[in-house]
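Table 4 source record.
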Amino acid sequence: MDTRLKSLVLKHIGKAAHKYWRAVACDIIAVCQGIKPGFLYDYGAVSSHSLAALTLDVFQTISHEQSKGGKKCDMCVITLEQDVMLVNIEALYRRLEEQEHCMESSTSNIIDVSENLKSPQILSFSSPHGIKLKQELHRFCAQCKQLLSKRNVDVKVAEVELPETENFNLTTIFGLLIGYPVFYWYQGGAEAANCLDMVPLTVYEIVCDVRNNFSDSQSQTSKTYDGFQTSTKHCDGSKAESLPSKDDYLLKSGHAVYSFSIPECVSDHCTERIHSWFHNLQDGVTKTLIINLQMSQKTVNLPSVAL
């Protein structure tokens, strides 16, 4: 399947995607299979039409491999100002509803990193800024649902343009749409600064291996993957049937499906939410091309942080 996916990426994106075609294919697969609600295309310039056409071809390729046939391609390409994002409509609806529920609960998942703060802090939805942001996010979630419901259903991968967001920054919007368990907000527009410079940050990275096909059962894949044997021998010394190598099984090893950070100073508030979110991710990868989902974390301290 990897040869087919490579040709599709190069066909729709162009030769500039030659070095990262595997990453592009893996990100699209992760969204198609609902592992993440959205994927912000940040590998270079791409048109919404090209990403939509590529997504449809990738979806049809993996659906054929899965031998289920007839499965609906419920995907959409969203443009927001100059950015292009692929979303899984069903997964995004769930994500928007989860955020609306979160905003009505007492636990916030948004970190205020406004420049005027001495240090980052959890944004309380009962504070003046929190109340205003909650109202704006409720409107945004409703607007997203409305636009998606009015998409052209005759097109298998629809294209929707979201209006510009004047009242809050794109960092917040992308954190929501990509599906991060916690994400940043700060006062001001796109050019506003933040208070993250020289602040210790915990960077979480969720990596996975992406299988090359569905032909092998999960148990067989796991068994072979552990040792990546290429052949075995019977007890009499005769050579047994060769087993596929790691490269035969995997489209990409160690693909970063999520990467985000939180300031260490708010880790007590965020850690339980992040681990619960990760466990839900693990539960969702059965019967998909995604295997060996793992979460790692490291601490960084940067002189300047751009969001």
